[in-house]
TrEMBL record:
Species whose genome carries this gene: Trichoplusia ni
Keyword Cytoplasm assigned: no
UniProt-annotated location(s): Mitochondrion inner membrane
Pfam families: COX6C
Keywords: Membrane, Mitochondrion, Mitochondrion inner membrane, Transmembrane, Transmembrane helix
Gene name per UniProt: LOC113494336
Keyword check for Heme: no
Descriptive protein name: Acrosin-like
InterPro entries tied to this protein: Cytochrome_c_oxidase_VIc/VIIs, Cytochrome_c_oxidase_VIc_sf
Gene3D superfamilies: Mitochondrial cytochrome c oxidase subunit VIc/VIIs
């Protein structure tokens, strides 16, 4: 058989479509935690000690004043009345 006598070849199939591009991007980042200031660690013990000493002095002054006014003045008056 002569090659010229062969029937024509069927047309080639169309090339396949290119794959779809990826629409998804990278996953979203998690939300950032809220900003908090770092605690001051330098001198923390001394600062707490000063605060506690100040609180102790104020409370003892208040307690002393209350004892003087509520107990001491009444007792002084009672002694004055007794020895008159």
């Amino acid at each position: 058989m002569n090659p010229c006598e062969l029937p024509p070849c069927p047309p080639c199939p169309p090339p396949p479509y290119p794959p779809c591009p990826q629409v998804c991007g990278p996953p979203p980042q998690p939300p950032l935690p809220p900003c908090r200031p770092k605690p001051t660690m330098r001198g923390l013990h001394w600062a707490q000690t000063k605060r506690k000493i100040f609180q102790a002095l104020v409370l003892s002054a208040i307690a002393g004043t209350l004892v003087y006014t509520l107990v001491g003045l009444k007792r002084r008056e009672a002694y004055r009345d007794f020895y008159e």
